[in-house]
Amino acid sequence: MNSLAYALLSMLIRKSCTGYELTQFLETFWQAKHSQIYPLLKKLENADMLTFVYEHQTAKPDKKIYTITPKGKEVLSEWIATKPSPPVSRDEFLIKAYAIWLTDTETASELFNERIDFYQKKIDFRKEKIAEMELAYGQQLLDPTASHFGRYILFKRKLKLEQDEVEWCQWVLSILVNNTEQASI
Amino acid sequence: MNSLAYALLSMLIRKSCTGYELTQFLETFWQAKHSQIYPLLKKLENADMLTFVYEHQTAKPDKKIYTITPKGKEVLSEWIATKPSPPVSRDEFLIKAYAIWLTDTETASELFNERIDFYQKKIDFRKEKIAEMELAYGQQLLDPTASHFGRYILFKRKLKLEQDEVEWCQWVLSILVNNTEQASI
DNA sequence: GTGGACATGTAATTGGTTACATGATTAG
DNA sequence: CTAATCATGTAACCAATTACATGTCCAC
């Protein structure tokens, strides 16, 4: 049982999903490719934590819809109370930012502008999803025992993070621009 | 050449270091254990991007002090201008936060309180380092061509991130507490 | 006609963690 | 006397990415 396994269980306890859906919606709190997810779902099924049914589709490939079992629920609930291992973040951009003094203003500005674009798209997506949730569930989102609570607080966290990233990039850009002006006087 | 290799080069271009030092100071923008770093330093040395000298120490093991070569500098500089791959973050706590509705208020509060402690320590450390930098280099930190610039902007970013994390945890805790009160009336 | 969404899987490789290994010094 | 810091390294294992593999439909 690795972290990804618990991540899958925590999504499936809210609603039954296909591996394809899990791959897409996992992004908020974990990242994994389908090549890691499909074998793991099979493993969890063998361990009696999941079951699945086929849904036949014409024109599209058949779906395998996975559902969590009582055993899966138990295993997940017990795990939540254990101490989480420290967060790991690996971001190539930060290496480049650290070494940004080696390059020219144009290259530096381009890097930061692309970073802004990248996060701006995330912000738009995030705001849309938050608005959808608030419209659909309203005050119920602030009930810690409701199944949408976790997703809601995570999206709020991510939005702040993404907005701060853009602000920070703009701050750095302002320094870069300011410096270029001074140099050309 | 993987991301870690560039992370090592970007540290070594600022000043020569031992593998041990690199392991410690890398934390801001990458994470790696010494078992990954030592073999990679050897590999970079074989590729003529690094050189090293032994520093004999009595009572402590000998040090290998690595220095970047002109080739290493060139390879690093060229890499900076290339498009960075998207950030990857894996945080077990977020899985637990997502599934927090499954547990009781006490367990949930403990998780969030421990998270606050974890980040508060980081904030203290970060503030100390920023203060040190500002004292030592002052306005020079805002010069994008100075070697401290990258480190400074990264620390500023990290501090904000860590402070926001604590604020968010406190917001969630306030919801949890508020809800417990209502339930017990 | 090309690329993307849908949908699932395996194989090969690289990246990263844990454990093994050594050894002196210092602080609690 | 136990744990932590300094200091470097290897081996075994697990986690994750990239590449291989298949097939239809729809939009541009």
From TrEMBL, chains A, B:
Boundaries of every Transcription regulator PadR N-terminal domain copy: 8-77
Transcription regulator PadR C-terminal domain sequence ranges: 90-176
PANTHER family: TRANSCRIPTIONAL REGULATOR YQJI (PTHR43252), TRANSCRIPTIONAL REGULATORY PROTEIN (PTHR43252:SF4)
Annotated Gene3D superfamilies: 6.10.140.190, Winged helix-like DNA-binding domain superfamily/Winged helix DNA-binding domain (1.10.10.10)
Organism taxonomic ancestry: Bacteria, Bacillati, Bacillota, Bacilli, Bacillales
A Pfam family recorded for this sequence: PadR
Name assigned to this protein: PadR family transcriptional regulator
